[in-house]
Amino acid sequence: MSTAQYGQLADHDVPLTHQTSPLNNTRKSLDVSSDGGSSIVYKDNLDVEPFQDEKGDRFRDDPRIEEDDGDGDCQGYTVEPRRLRPRQKSRKILAVLIVIVSFAAIIGGLAATGYSAPSYYAKSGTKRITMDHIFNGTFGANTKQLDWVKEAPDGTFSHVSLEGNIVLNTVQNMTLDTVLVDSSLVLDLDGNKLHWQSWALSADMKYVLFKTDHVKQWRHSSFGNYWIYRRSDSVTFPIVAPTHPPTITHCTWSPVGHGLAFVDKNDLYVIPESEMASTQPKPVRVTDDGSEVVFNGVPDWVYEEEVFETDSALWWSPDASTIAYLRSDESDVKDFKLQYYNPSNDAFEPHQYPTELDMKYPKPGTPNPTVSVHTYTLSTRSRAQLAWEGEMPIDNRIITEVGWVADDALLVKEIDRAARLGNVILFEGGKNLGNIVRILGKDGEEGDDGWIDHGQNVIPVKGAVPGYLDIVPNEGFNHIAFFSPHNATQPTWITSGEWEVTQISAVNPENGTVYFMAATPSIDRHLYAATLPSTVEAEYEQQLTSITATDKSPPGYYETSFSPGANYYVLSYKGPEVPWQRLVSVTEEEDINVLLEGNGKLNQTLSEFVRPIISRTTIESDGFELNMLEMLPPNMDSTGRKKYPVLIRVYGGPGSQMVSNRFERDWHTYLVTAQRYIVIMVDGRGTGLKGRALRNPVRDDLGHWEVVDQIAAAKEMVKRGYVDRSRIGIWGWSYGGYMTCKTLEADSGIFTLGMAVAPVTDFLYYDSIYTERYMSTPSANGQGYISSAVNNVTSFSGDKVDFIWAHGSGDDNVHFANSASLLDKLTQSQVRGWRFRMFTDSAHSMDKRGAFREVYEWMTDFLEEKWGKGGNIHH
């Protein structure tokens, strides 16, 4: 269940017609958009495949292969949450007006910017929205992704042609194709065409790495066989003999030249550059203790899921002389077994015995994998374990980040299990003994009783003033800190104020500029540029360049993808209007402004349908200002003569965000327009992007203050004359399912209906790293775990509330044990009147045999049964 997603899935918006966009920019522009089509059409009418985004930092996927990871996120319409934690990866924005102002002036202007008034199309259609429209992609926005090629000159990107060739283009000449690899020349050992799923180019562009036989493992990890294509003579050969099934879990080029590192059966190997002259390269084995429970260079399940969010746990130094890698030992982690009753896609195909999947799954208070950081020096073929004075006990610490900040400077972050204490350690000059240079936690950078957030935010800075950038709390808000020299204990603050930086998007060392995304206001995303210190002695003065936002700009939620040299970017406008994309140069002198996608057909489609009225505002709860989004039925009678039900859509996980200015048309749009319900969302205490003061209250007390805030929202709604007080409901998925259960458990007398999907019902059943970050360990916070669990089950009685919930039996994230426990408590307490459905073998996303849509159809039927339609005349 995790939260990262819900911040991302909560794209709640309605298009506007007054939004200013770069389409009206006075700079010369070339329209290469494809309204409704999947391929970009250039001015010479050459059709090519859509550009694909780079996966991680290694592989580009074959655009002919679309793989659904089982989370429902490949569909572009109604999607469900994938995880409990908030994902903090986001690429963001840039655009038209460039206004350089003082830092204080920009923030003052932003603070004065209010949230949007009710937003909708000027032209309203008459077509009624159906469930089919929601689930068949009718309202899905097209997107283009430029796959930047960092190995080539800046501004080079790639795509795969209809013939399967890998082709390079440049932003300066997008119509000129340069064939990097002719697919007809990429052959397997039998001389047949190699069918690959992804590829990566060596740093010197002499070799191409291909992945075949892809087999998915966990959320980010997979197995595959790997082949090298030598461009000089068009020879293809495997890095090691292919196996079936494949056993290699990670493979990556060195950042210089064409060395290679890979992990096979959890051992790390290196192929030196000298071996590439042969068609049978001899790998150097770096580790020899890899096993089912010992991992070298790749994360185990919980580190992949909750810490790194990637399949890699190895890091090349910038000069490719050294590899740092994580070693994980989960020998003491307890086993968890998942049963699957039907491995096929046909429910009518009988299977007499279930299959079982064994996995190591640490839960609160149980052993975590023990981890250590090691280095391998290629020139001496020597490895070493890193250590430092003051190192936390290995059974009580989590390594949250590892990153090179210079050729010979490595940074490591550690925190304790409860995420209250932490250290940043620096290793310099090839030494294996490091020094603590920064302190995290209450007595360090956070400065309060909240948890220590973690992410992969460290970015090295070269130039006259070398150092590194990090995102660090600054008086309760996440901001960019510049540490120079590398062993600096205190930073120079690049940003500050009562708003939050969400990501460092790019750094251009040539002009000393850092580009970053900021939530200004919290429901928007805009891109800014800031100048880094130019000399060691100079007194630094904060100065921002506003690229997508000024104090006069309308609301907007942007994302960007910068070229590796930070001279170009793809600007993706995500809402509240219909999304569009442009390719833009950073400097106006180069004058590049190309429309990649305008979604004109979607604009036309939306104008034909009835539309909800959407507004974003704030409410107050216990003195906290909370963001709120409200969706009202079209042509609603607000006089009070007619009454409308209210359904609260909730997520509420720590650090997440539901209320934003993203464009969205999903199941809730159907409920509002067809069923004439009111749908609202409120980001209560614990949620993200409004500072630590809003996040921290839920520490060690999950399920309390978040519930208080949802009840406050319901109380606010019933004050309105057009709201039917007898029809107030709440629903959510994952952490939102937990919030639904806890809100009903509170028995406030306001809610008459609730629906939960894949809920946590007791955090003792969830994974340790996520849970202990917010709840500490059970031994330290036993009462907190008891109060956070769903225990007061009498409040679910049918004479108090209409309640349904569902869970997939194959959920490897929020285990079915959560619902099994709730079922048991209801049975023992003789509580009746509720309904439950188990979806056989479905994972957290309800992905098996039509389960995903069935969940929504089931909830829709339940709402119609209990509420009927809204807009009833009140007598």
TrEMBL record:
Entry-linked SUPFAM superfamilies: alpha/beta-Hydrolases, DPP6 N-terminal domain-like
Presence of keyword Transmembrane helix: yes
Pfam families named in the record: DPPIV_N (PF00930), Peptidase_S9 (PF00326)
Keyword Ion transport among UniProt keywords: no
One GO molecular-function entry: dipeptidyl-peptidase activity
Any one GO biological process: proteolysis
Membrane topology: Single-pass type II membrane protein
Biased composition (Polar residues): 17-36
Protein family: Belongs to the peptidase S9B family.
Protein name listed in UniProt: Uncharacterized protein
Source species: Kwoniella shandongensis
